[in-house]
């Protein structure tokens, strides 16, 4: 009982410590609100029109920033559906097998009806030994959350949450609105910051808030600009942070552009089909996070499309029904209804040859 109680205490302490970065951000934002609204707008600015314009614009940016931040923090990461979890019988069979090839045979049997394209670098089925499930495409196990997260991008300490399929749009908007917030504060505070150095401000405590507000907002603007630009590039390329460091592996090998369908379709995967929701921290991403259309080519998808073209995205289907046979091309529940199965005997034979490699083993992936 004592070791178990000790572990629980340590786990609870870690949970508390994980909220320290979030608390730090909240304190900074609360101080910036006081410094800008009270000390700058109310106490320092004398022109009534300028004061009203600044306060209205500031509160628009502030509300959108806080809303997006809240959504990023408190939206629970999505986990794989039950179809990807091993049954009790399959888990027992897997545990009894000592040889990697035998384990792979069991996993291939389980995964044959699931919409899975990716493999490990050695070609094995991606399996999580902690969650006892076959990993969907782009799914990874988070060591902090101790769960498999759909389309995991990274675990962010500043939001104390995993950034993945369920909240990646919120995270991107959080970066955008926090950058706009900092840029607005920097721009409107600049003239009073200059007056501080030219002794143009009255000798009150407001002048020190104005000085530190300019320094803080300008420094955060630089870091947020670089981070936001990076994630804009990821969205346009349809990659996650993890996929930048390790390109997804398919049957034909690794392909950094495997999930990229072109800038327009990549944007719609994250922000949805309805543009009126793009700028709002409301979930509108396409799909269910368990399967994604692929181009399955090495060429840059931003170049002119090949005669086969890219698969069209259809976000109208909300069910989690999987096809009765494995997806061997770029079809998934996100693809248009007009596409048909292209399943030939030659393709099946080639797949069997590729999946019967005795070197395949279960690999632990994050």
UniProtKB/TrEMBL annotation:
Membrane topology: Multi-pass membrane protein
UniProtKB keywords: Acyltransferase, Membrane, Transferase, Transmembrane, Transmembrane helix
Molecular function terms from GO: protein-cysteine S-palmitoyltransferase activity
Keyword match Membrane: yes
Main location: membrane
Catalytic activity, reaction form: L-cysteinyl-[protein] + hexadecanoyl-CoA = S-hexadecanoyl-L-cysteinyl-[protein] + CoA
Domain statement: The DHHC domain is required for palmitoyltransferase activity.
Record-given protein name: Palmitoyltransferase
Protein's organism: Pygocentrus nattereri
Source lineage: Eukaryota, Metazoa, Chordata, Craniata, Vertebrata
Gene transcribed to yield this protein: ZDHHC2
